[in-house]
Structures are given as structure tokens and as C-alpha cells.
User: Fold these one by one.
Assistant:
Number 1:
Amino acid sequence: MPTVGWIQDSAHDRLTDSFPFVRQKPEPIACPLCGKAWADRTALLAHLGIDHPMRRPLLRVGTRVGLDGYELRTPFTPADIEVISATACRVSTNGRNEVLVAPEQLPAFVLNAGNATHSIKLLNSRAEDDREAMASIEVRVAIPQAETLANIDELFVHHLAHDRITIRMVDEFRRSVTPESSAADYLGALADYAVGVLTKEQRQVSGAHLPFSQFTGKFQSARRCLVDFSRPVATAVVALIDFNLNNFSRSQPAGFPELQNAHHFYCTLTGAGKTQRPVQSGNIVTVAACPVDAVTAAIWEALKLFPEFPGCDEPSPQLPATHDLPLSEFDIAKLRALKAGAALLLGKQMFARDQLRALRHDARFGKWAEYHLEAPALS
Ligand SMILES: [Zn+2]
């Protein structure tokens, strides 16, 4: 009926007049991490994913960070271990059941466990959007007794610090001691270095059986372990390996003047700049603590007589003392740099230019070669 309808309309009108309909705008949501406002939860979640991606949790051990595995071979303090971006941590030690460890307690946990292997799961989770990042990290603590290491060093010098070593001598060194398992790596690394020297020299009588190309692998695996130890024998072997692989450094351990001088000399040839005479201190013939491969020894001998050493004007990279030895790419570069440096100092421009040209694309000596090739005297 019209009358009733009219009454109803009027009631509806009165209601909407007093409570006008407003299209409800949702309350903006502030990002809990940066405070920026977002229209709704979907927009906030998208923002969290894009602008605040979940960080993968990391572990720092000493100066290394973000690796999947760490070996601790020397005494450490809790400050050497740091958990980064983790909200929780689970640890299984020596294959036992996992336990929960608060991330900030992990350094002390690892320290107190002594020599052990830990499988660590670091979790970084966020309640705001239920995201989670995880990292699985293996930490092996194997710290040998100082007396065991001293004994191994002594045996290494006794068995292997000789001019002509053989595989038999390396085996005798290996068998001369059965160290606790934590020191086995150290013994193995020193043996690997000796095998690397034999592999590099390829002398039939030495009993070496690996192909020449494998000497770098032996050196690198030895270096990975020995670099952790600041003991005279270990640091000398690491410096020898670095010299062999053309990783020259001015900060070489004292006590091995020949090795130190050789590193210094080649350091001056790895950047653009003038060529200098090598500094010679003392007249020591070998690094008393370790076997040195014959090519390296020949380079040191030449450095003593630099710039007028035998073979300094032979166009091939060989020296008279290395004629029957295979040369690595690193040796060839070192020998050419040695000859080019000598020629520059002696004013033999043509000869220097040929050697420098061969070094143009070398990772270590390229810059130095370019510098001299562009100098007015040679160009
Ligand atoms: Zn934000």
C-alpha cells in the first residue's frame, strides 16, 4: 500500500540521514621493519618480500664468513665465532641428536665441546610474513697438541729438508709417526707439499708417479691446511707454495731470507713501475726447513747474480739449471720477468721487449710489462 510504503521510505531516509553511508577505506598497515604504510596486508607482504628479503643466516669464523664448512685447527676464543642473522640454531655434535642452542650461545657451545664435528642449522624466521631462511654449516674443531705438531715438524725436517727427495722418503715421513686424528691433516699437508715438489720435478729416480699437471692440486690442498698454522715450517711451506703459484706478497715470514727476497723482488714486478734490483741479505742457499723444487732454487740462484746471471740473454724462458726440468706456466712467467728485468737494467732493449711482449697478458706481470713496453725507450 502506498501509505505504508511512504512511511517505510521515510524511516529509511531518516536512518541514512543520521548515519550517512561512507565507503570504508581500510586502515593502512605500517611495515614493522621500516614503518612505511601499506594499503592492505597483500601489499605489505609483497613489500616485505621485495624490500626486506630474508637474509640467509651466516656464520663467521675468524676472518671467514658465509661458508658452508669451517675447520678450526688452532686454539680460538668465543669472539672468533659469530652468528649473523639467525633467530634459532640447532646443533648435532659428532652425529648425535640435534639440540637447540641459542644463536648467541653457539660460540661458547663449540668452544666447550673441544675437538668435535658439529652439523649446525641456522634459522632466520620472521613472524610478520612467516618467511624463513636456513643455512646448514659444518664446523670441525680439530686442534692438535702443540707437542705433536713440534714432533711432526722435526720429522719433516729430518726426512724431507734435503736437496733430492724421493717418494720413499715421503712415505717414511708419513709412517714415522701416528698422530692423534686432529694432527693427521697437518702431517698429510706437509707430505702433500713434498709430493707436489716431486710431481713438479718429474724426476724418474724419485719414484713420483703423478702427472706434472697435478702438482698445483697437491700444493693447493697442502696450503689449505697449513695456512691455519703460524709455525715456522708451516709458514715457510705456505710461502714456498705462494711463490710457486705466483702469489707474491711483501709480508713473508722472517727467518727465510732467500724466500723473502724472492717474494720482494717479484712484488716489484707485479705493478706498473720502475724495475729495481733485488735486495740481498745474507747468502743462505736453501730454506733449511723444507725441500724446495729445483726450478724455484734455480730462480733464487739467478736472483743472487741478478742482473748478470747465466742464461740471462737466452731467448727461451729456461735457465741452464732448468734445462731438463718441466716448467709450469707460473715458472715461465717468473723466468721471463726475471730476464726482462735484467735486460732493462743492462740496457738490452730489444731483448727486454721480446720477453715483455710474452708477458703482456700475464695475470701478475701484465701491467708491469705494459708499463715498460709503452716507455719511450722501448716503444
Ligand atoms: Zn618495510
Number 2:
Amino acid sequence: MAPSGCAVCGIDTNLVCKNCKSAGYCSSTCQAKDLALHQLLCGKLQPFLEANPRPENNYTTTHKLALLFDKNENSPEFIWIETKITMSDDGTYNLTCDLSEWLGYDGDADGGSGDGEAFIHARHDKKIQVWKASGAIAQNPGIFTLTEGGWDFGMVDDAYPDRLRGTIIGMGVESLKDDTRVTKYRDVTLDDLRVALSCFLEDSYMFDVHKSHEDGYNPYVILDQPEWFKAVKINNREEYFSKTNPFQEVMLNRNMRQWHSDKSAISELMGITLLVRKFPLYRDTFKDRINPEAISLLLNVNTSEDNEFWGRVPFPKYDSGKDPTFLVFRKDKQEITKQQVEALSSYCQVVLCQVLEEPEEWSWEKEDQEAVLDVYCSAEKFEEYFETFKLEKVAEGDETWVDASPPSGMRAAGIAEEDPEPGAKRRRVTSPPADDEDEVSEDENSEDETSEERHRRFLAYANWKVNLALGRG
Ligand SMILES: [Zn+2]
Ligand SMILES: [Zn+2]
């Protein structure tokens, strides 16, 4: 019954929990990560075995120690389950277990059917067979607590995945590699509690850190494993919890199934590609308000000549008054913080919306658009903005901004790389707007305006608009 392998990371170890001797740990670090979950059962094991010795077995039945997540209880318990070897008519042997006492229909509509549904879940070579009552609809309070904050592909509403309802039993099993048939039932160890939690979270592609538990973190889930990375959720401001600041950090599962997202072309030009997706998946939660913080990241910067949506969000897909909550994450699955997304979103709304807007009196050419993008969709301009934005936030007393820095991996302005000398000058154009406009009308009539002059004119215009927007005009 002694476990093999660390309950958290799976590497071989001979060290076990001193108290229950039923969970293996390679180090005090792994033990600490497992502590909150482990403590739910560590102190219960010996008293249970003393009060409930293994029932008498005969040659066809054996009782195995199992985990019970009762739909009426807040925390897991141990139970003995009778397992049986039966012979079919065709002479083959079957392993069965009798769960009717636990999963049976009890006259309560929430009880489900006693038939039960089983699935096998593996983690670090440990396998458990998880049983639930068919058709159970009651929320299981213990499992809800363990998984709180997780968002599951199987959710029927925003509260609880369907497959985790009703009473659930976890049996320790062995099976052949890549085979789901049980070859042997075994007693569970406390390592299996971590296997069970990983099963409950199997379809959780997102973990809402903010929502779970009082101190902000669900203590049972280990989110720093390599499979989780930091992303940002931008709530629609209509949602009650996001009136003040719609930006929230969440953890995404690196192994999540691929889903459709839109690419933020702006961020791509800056050298880090952000993916933006409507959220949640299967819920019709369209609010009759737009979510400008999120969709501003999707400004259209496609410079193809026939692009009539230049500088705007792709209407009617977005900005049609029905934009809910969004997830924003880095395509390279590096972490991104809420400060970084908030500053970029603000940059898009305050600066880019201004500079990408075509002046009525001029017509843009592809080269003009590209020249403006080269300057404004760059790390240089954004980082400058980030510093100002950060100072404002810190001045407002928001301490989360004190150590904030722009995302890693952004690239410097494209022009400067390809054409350092004139590019550097272009970005310094700061003519007063009035003079600028005069020059503009002269230049318009001039036949021999070079593309260099033209770019300077567009950038001066862009600069003027940005200064105006930033209140420096
Ligand atoms: Zn370990
Ligand atoms: Zn223990």
C-alpha cells in the first residue's frame, strides 16, 4: 500500500508522509504544494482503518479501499468497495465492483441511476477508475470546493461541469498500457487524491484565480506546473464584478485543445502575438454593450489597398454591441500580465485609434499606412506609453503597478532596423499642428513630393493627433 513516486511530480522516491505513510514526496517543496489537498484525508486514514477493518473476503470477492466524494458531504472520505471476479458464459473473466449502495437511486431526483458511468484517469502512471451515478444533477459540494475557479469544456452553465455532478467514487486500478480495461483493483493511497483532482480538472482549460477562494487562490490546485501559464481575461463592464477594472489574470492550460481565436495584428507587429477569443465557449452571454478594452486589440492594420476597414475593429464580428468577456493570451504561451494587457489596450484606444484614422483631406496609400505602423506599432512607442501609463496608475495608488514592465520579446521599430538614419529622424517630427496643416496643403499640390516627405507629413499628422489625445497638444 506504500506509494511509489512523488504525488506531485511523479519522480521516484522512498520518502512518504510521516503521519499517514500513504503519500510519497520527493522533497519538502512538492509536499508543501500538495499539503492543502493531502490534509483533507491524511488524519482520517488511520482512524478509518481502526474503526472499519477490511471486511472478510472470500475467493471471488475482495474489498478495496476507495475514495468517496459524497454528494452530501463537503470533503472526501474513505470507503471499502467490494470487487468481484465473475465468469461470463463464454468463459472469460470479468472484474466488477458493487457500487449500488453509493450510486443507487435514492428517491431523490438528484441521485441519478445506480448503473453508474466509469472512466479511467491516469497521472504519472497512476490510474484510478472514477465512477459517477448516471444522470445525477446535484452539484457535489466537495468537488466544487476542490475545483473552484476552473472552467471546463463540459460546463452547462458558468458554475459547474455536468460530468462532476452527484456522488463520485475513485477506485485504484491497474491496467495494461494504453488499455482502458481494468486488470486489477488495488487499494487507493493518498497519492490517488491528486490523481482524482487532476481527473476533475481534466477539461479545465482555464483557471480563474480571482474568483476562487477568499485569499485569491484555490489551495488545492497546483497552478505552477508547466501545464499552466498566465493569461488575461477582459470582462465586459456590465458584469457586476468588473465595474472598476475589467482586467483579471487567469491561468490557461498549455495542453488545452486548440480553439479558434483571433490574432491581434497590432501585437504581432510589435513582435509578440496575442490571441483574443470570445468567452465563455458554450454560453449565450452576449451583453448589449461592447467591450472596448478587448476589441481595441483587434484594430485592423491590414495595409492591402482594398481594405475598407483599415484602422477599425472588424465589424460586424466585433463592436456590434454584443461583445462579451474575452480571453487574451500569448500565442507563444509565455506569461502575460493584466498590467501589460491593460496598457496595450489603452495604447490601442488612446494612441492607435487616433493615428490610424485617415485624415479626410488626404487619401492614404499603402506606403503611408506602413510608415505609420512602423513607428506606432513598435515596442519603442508602446514602452514609452507604458511608462507614462504606469506612473499614472502608481500615482492613483495602485501598488500592483509598481513593478510592472512591458511584455518581453517586443521588437524595436521596424524602420530603425532597415533604414536607421532617416527613420530615426522621422520619429522626431514635432511641428506644431497649425504650421503643419499649412505645409500640408502646399505639399498636396506639389508634384515632386518625395515618399520621404510624404511619410514625414503623415507622421507629423499622427504625432499631432497623439499629442492631442494625450493632452499635450
Ligand atoms: Zn516531487
Ligand atoms: Zn499524510
Number 3:
Amino acid sequence: MAGKFSFVSVMGALLVLTIFHDPIIVDAGQGVPEVALFTFGDSYYDAGNKAFLSKNKNPPQTLWPYGKSRDDPNGKFSEGYIVPDFIASFAVADASILGAPAESMTLNQQVNKFRSMISTWSDDYIEKSLFMIYIGTEDYLNFTKTNPTATASAQQAFVTSVTNKLKTDIGLLYSLGASKFAVPMLAPLGCLPIVRQEYKTGNDCYEPLNDLAKQHNEKIGPILNEYAKKPNGGFQFTVLDFYNAVIRRTTRSYNYRFYVANSSCCGVGTHNAYGCGMANVHSKLCEYQRSYFFFDGRHNTEKAQEEIAHLLYGANTNVIHPMTVRELIVFPAKENMRELWEPNKPSIRRRRSSRDYLDLSAYY
Ligand SMILES: *[C@@H]1O[C@H](CO)[C@@H](O)[C@H](O)[C@H]1NC(C)=O
Ligand SMILES: *[C@@H]1O[C@H](CO)[C@@H](O)[C@H](O)[C@H]1NC(C)=O
């Protein structure tokens, strides 16, 4: 099994992605240490593991049109590269924190897999490396489907159970020596084309799912702050406000040069959101993928993924906070962060001087 998970020595890749838009692994240079990027979570960050775990010999993501712009379908959920393409990924499609389909791994199983392989890397290397975790989509989609009439308190209890698992699994990674964590907030799940299609919301998002994502997101920063406050603990992290980054792109898509952000490029149905790559579905593929924000019903196009990687690496504090991924990588190991995560960072800064006049933060 170990062979199914590969690792690439890393940070050069993020750097290259930012500068040349092409994630070829090279020596990082420029003061960025060579470290690994370990990703955990669901299909967003799955660099193809699900395809190996699947009992189905040809799951959709291994079939055309997935990967079409990069020659081959390769088990990744876009027409080309995905955010952590430059990395080895522990992320497995459809993984969820509280239990997952038989073919996939929960976050806890992924963490245990990492634990079983930990002697592969030195403690020093693990401590300097970046751990990215994106998880929860599957939990909330499933909860909403199976409990359509859940009360507010049942929803809160469910969010707490999901975020407590996340907290425990991050704590487990930390106890194994991981010390740098990048945790994107959940996307507005109610705006995914597959959700709009299944709940028949037309051009609107399905708000009950957005509410669950918001409740989940509110807990992420405080959970991470708790670890980071331990004296001399050396726990470092940053949180990408992926929720609002997606909202900006779905509500003002033209500003970001996405011409379609309310339905998918590949699939069938009112929002073209179902069945991309499935052998028995005659899905439609849009002509120009780069003008779409979503490739299939729940995953972004390569162009969108490239933008997200840029946000992680270099967006301002309204978008990624308390530091960028680049700053996180170069932050001295073993030191505590100087600034913690704060709620309600203003999303648009006041323009106070002529220098600030060119601040484009609202466009991130
Ligand atoms: C989906 O929800 C049902 C009912 O709450 C639960 O039994 C099942 O384990 C869940 N599946 C996943 C993959 O979380
Ligand atoms: C998506 O938005 C466009 C432009 O606003 C609109 O014409 C179209 O009907 C919307 N699609 C769906 C499925 O609601």
C-alpha cells in the first residue's frame, strides 16, 4: 500500500506555481527551505489516491475528460492540475471525518497511514513541512441529505462532532511532530453546482448547507489558536478564507474572468453537475474550460485551482490569516507565532492613503 502514496520534495513547487504558473518541481531557492507538503482530506486534494483504493477499476476521475488538458486522466478531480499538484497527497476522494464510503479513507485513517510511514522522514523534516487539511464536505452533504429536517440544535451538535474530530486528528499529527498547518475554511457548500441541481435552487445557493459550512468555519480558527497558545509548543498555522473567496467568484464571476460560476463544465442536468466521466452517462463538456469556475459538480477547474494556490501562497490578511503559506514555511520551527487568528477580519480595508488606493484586496 505504501507505494500508492508518493511524496515529492516540495516547496519549490509552490514557488514555481506562483511565479511561472507551472508546478514543476525545482529547487526552491530564495530562502525557502526544502520541505514536504503533506495533504490530508477529501477529493479536493486527492492527487489520485482514490483511484488506487477504488474497487471500481475505472472510477470517473480516471476517465476522459478528467485530466484532458494535461494529456491524461490521472485520478485528479479537474481537467488538469489541482491545488496541491506538486505534492504527494494523502488526500483521498470523498473522505470524511466521521466515516467514509468503503473505498475511501477517513481523515483519521489517513493520519494513521501517515503514522505508519513516519519513519520515512526525519523529525526535523516533518517539523519544517507543511500539512494541509481540507475536509468536511462529505460529512455535511451526507448530513443534510439524511437529516433534511434537522433542528438548529441538531445541526450545531453535528458541526461540533465534525470539528471535534478535526481537532483530535490535528492534535494527533501535532503529537507526531507536525508543526505547520494550513487549513482552508470550507467552501460555501450550498453553491456547488451538484447541490444547486439536487436541491433545485436554480441560480441561488442552497442556504442550509452554506449555514453549516459557516458554523464549521467559525470553529476552525479558535481550535487552531488553542494549540498555538501552548507555551513553547511551536504550533504554527494559517487559515484561508476559502468560503468568501468562492462567494466572491460565484457572485461577481466576471470580475475574475469566469464566465460561468453557477453550473459545471462537465456533466448532465440543470446545472450540468452530475456524472462527469461516468461511463454510462453522456455528459456534456464545455468548450472552453478556463471560463468555468467549476469543472464537475463539486470540483473546480484547473484555472480556479491555480488561483486558489495563489491565494494560499500570497494573498493578503483578509484572505489568508495570520500569515501566508509562504510565510508559514519560512517561519522558524519551534517558535510560537506572534499573531493568532482573529475572527471578523475586515474583508475590505479602508483606503487611508494614496498608497492604499491601489489596494486590490476586494479582488482576491
Ligand atoms: C451518512 O449519514 C448516515 C445517517 O446519519 C450515516 O449512517 C452514514 O454513516 C453517513 N455516511 C458517511 C459517509 O458519513
Ligand atoms: C447561471 O447564470 C446565468 C447568468 O446570470 C443565467 O443566465 C443562468 O440561467 C444561470 N444558470 C442556472 C442553472 O441557474
Number 4:
Amino acid sequence: MKTIDKTILDTEYFCIMPWVHFHALPNKKVLPCCMADSDKPVSNVDNKSILHMMNTDEYKKLRLNMLNNWPSDICQRCYDVEKLGTWSLRQSNNAVRGESSLNLVKSTKMDGGIDKFKLKYLDIRWSNICNFKCRSCGPEFSSLHAKEYADKKEGNLTVFKMEDIVVGNNKDGSFFERMTPYLHHVEEVYFAGGESLITPEHYQLLDFWLENEQTDIKLTYTTNFSVFKYKDKNVLDYWKKFSNVEIFASLDGMGSVAEYLRSGTKWTEIENNIKMVKEKAPHVKFHITPTISIWNVHQFPKFYEYLVDKRYINPTYDGGLRLNMLTHPWYASIQILPYAYRKKLIADWRRIRSNGNYDRSVRNAFAVVLEALKTKQSTSIDGLEKFFDTEFATDKMRSESLFESIPELKEVYQWMQAAKEVVNKDNS
Ligand code: SF4
């Protein structure tokens, strides 16, 4: 292992996260961060001290790999993102908290273990409690999905390795208790769900930091932005007391598209919530974190322009946007759409991509969507068939209608039927 100084932050595989971060999932898996491969957990939250969880053989090996600038399978997603030329979680955390945490790295033991854990950045997904059942989500991250699966599909949740409709890592409160001594050094917390604004541990954490006058902690959220009240608590009362609050609302469309895609949404209520936060807690930075998929790719450029026109987001301050491309379920990815349909969307995405008033990061994000739309070879008739079959089955279960909510997709369905006929004729 070479001498550790700040040059380590610029190496290919070093990452500060295993020294300063804690991440756990509702199913109790502990991972070095949310980008890490969830099939390769480094620990489990059951019956162990936090320091024990940070010193498993897997965690020690990961630290040693990083210190030696060797790659680790669990971190492949970061490397992939970097190859695309985009900033990874590894790079951004090295930049934000690398230098100030070097003393922790220097005290690493020869076997990769650590004697003390200074938690600076916290991201625990406490449970799958959620008031939505989004089309792209599933039982592991939404209790409503789990309930629907158990009730209507008469499904056995063990398929998802779940014992119950609600899964959580803190059901007896002991995980929170073990975490409490580490909360004093936290600089940033990321809340995501389930739905964090109706998760009890979210309020427990904020109460702890208020009692300890740690109101300069950065609070970052991914939320469906639908409900601000939980029992006797109102999250706005909390946000007013913290100086650094940043919201990434999971909004990918408006009107019937939003209501179909993220079942539970009432678009007018979401819009009222945006206005309310702007008025009552103006220091809260509001952004959206949309996922671009078959469901919303036709509407998104207009939706983004609508949010800008209404001044809900600021297109010049980092664009108010953290855009994701849907990869799961694969059959809802925009790349499988027929090219003839995609061609019509390209003009809209080009127009928005070339708007010089938008921040460069936004235009870059739109360029990624454009590239995907332009890939001619990726259309998949099988994928479209799977998409429509799944949608129609879910529609039946929920008494919803894809074509009533998103009539634009009728054209795609007709194209798929015609293409299937051609294939069948060729095969007969
Ligand atoms: S390299 Fe990436 S995946 Fe690995 S711990 Fe760091 S941020 Fe997480």
C-alpha cells in the first residue's frame, strides 16, 4: 500500500465512501452506497454493532482494493458511468468530502479494518412504506405494490424474499438505537424510500438533530412530493428549521401521464404542494428527478418547459433536474420503441436540447435521451409485446386504461400488431 496523501483522491478506483458513509436497504442488506451492486452486500443490520458492520471481511477487502487502486466488482456501476463521461458518485464524494476525511483513511489498519467510524453521510432506506404503486417500482420498495401483489395476484411475497407486506430494517427499533451514537458527525443525509415523508425514522432523525442543534446538516430527498403530514408532524415545520434542504421530486410527467405512471398521484395536489413549499419555505431548493421511459418520453420536453414557465424550477441553476434513463423493467425502456415513432419525438428533444437559456448540465442530460432515441437497431417487438401485456394486466387489476391516460401509445401498439403479422406471415 503506498503512502496516503490527497493524490489518492484522483486515482482510478479510490472512493471515500467506505470510510464515511452508511447505506442500508429495507431488506437489511448493508452496502457501501446506493450505486453498489445490491447482490453483493458487505454486511447485514441484524444483531451487530455498527462498527462490526463496517469491519466485515467484505468491507475490509473493498477498502484494501481502493487503497491499492484495484477495481472491485461491487463498484462496477461507478466505473461504467465514468466511462460514459458522466460524473460518478465516487468522483463527487471524493471531491466533496475526500480531502477533509483523509485522516480517517490514513488510520486504516493493515487488513483494511477501521477502529473508529466517523459517519458523515447517511443514506438508510428504513422500510418499503409507500403511498404510491408506480408502474416502474415493485413490492421491495412499495408496501402498496406488495399489498396489491399479495391480494390481487394472490402472489407469494417470498418470490421477493419478503416475509410481509411491510418490510423494514428497524421493526424493533434496535437498528436506530445502534445508529444513534454516530449521528453527531453527520454532515449530509439522503432520504429516499419507500416514501420518506411518511417514514417514522425520518422524523426521528430530524428530531434528534433538532435536539442537538445540528440544523446545518444538509437534508436531501427523493420524494413523490404528495404528502407532507405524518401523524401529528408536518414536514414543512421541520424544513423551516434546517438551513440546507434540497428536494428531488420523482416527477416525470403531468396530468394523466403522471397519474397513470405513478399510481396514487393527483397532479393538481402535486402542483399545489410545489407552490406551497415555494411560498412557505422558500430556502428549500426544489428539483425534479424524472425517469425517462416509454410512458413519458413523448411528454417530457413539454413538461420540463411547463415547470420552467411556471418558475417551479430554475433552468439556469443546475437546471433543477437530475434525469435518469429507465433500465428496469427493460421492456419499458425508450430504446425498444419503433424507430418511426421515435423519429417524431426527436424533433421535440432537439428543440429543448438546443435551448441556450438552459444550464449545460440539462442540455447534456437531454443529449443522452436524444442519443438513445437515435439508436435505430434497438427496436424490440418482443419487448413491446411484454410491455403491453404487462400494462393491460395491471390496467385490469386497477381498473385503469393505458390508452385513455396515454393515447400516444396507441400508435405504438398498432405498429407492434402490424409488425407481428409480418413476422408471422414470414414464418408460415
Ligand atoms: S466506487 Fe461507487 S459504487 Fe463503489 S463505494 Fe464508491 S460510490 Fe459506491
